[in-house]
Amino acid sequence: MIEISRVSKWYGAFQVLSDCSTQVARGDVVVVCGPSGSGKSTLIKTVNGLEPFQHGSVRVDGIEVGDPKTDLSRLRARIGMVFQNFELFPHLSVRENLTLAQVKVLGRSLDEATERGLAYLDRVGLLAHKDKFPGRLSGGQQQRVAIARALSMDPVAMLFDEPTSALDPEMIGEVLDVMVGLAQEGMTMMVVTHEMGFARKVADRIVFMDHGSIVEDSPKEAFFNAPRSERARDFLARIIH
Questions:
Q1: How far apart are CA 85 and CA 203, in angstroms?
Q2: What mean pLDDT comes out for the span 93-100?
Q3: Which of 4, 84, 102, 162 pairs with 191 at a CA distance of 20 to 30 A?
């Protein structure tokens, strides 16, 4: 579903990604982890063209992301993205946040968009909040609305960029529970996170990054039980402790 091949990226003279290659099969969950500044968020944002890159290729469901002829707006409509800071429209109600992109991008009628949006809102346990504005919701609730909004677009894959990093500790579980449910239902997912409990529970593979490079790309059991690199062993010792 997602194929990243020898991707490199620079900000001026600074190289933020170096020859990165990995892939995500349909229905798989791949967790991308590593220390801060290792390039995790930049890598995941190349998948839907939010971060351009200077070398290599990224393909999503057979579509070449870096091809100038690719309609990135249409591609992004097929790839759900959940950010650290929710990115909800504060002046729109939850219902309006759920329907806007469906109507404007997918061309759905307002009635159809509302039906689908509220169905996913119910799925994340927030149907009773449909008429509230984001500012009246907790951080965990806002992130669950953001997930429902992404799902309303019928994505072929979901990208999560540290979806719990801006949340208070007691709110993290409610967001992870939704993500676990998606994984168990077979959603193709690429997740940047430090939540190793989530990774142990649902990941098929772990991609470990450091200084813009993919240091390890291995099945979950191999990564947690016998990481090959000293850098990954040190990271796990620190984060699990």
A1: 23
A2: 97
A3: 102
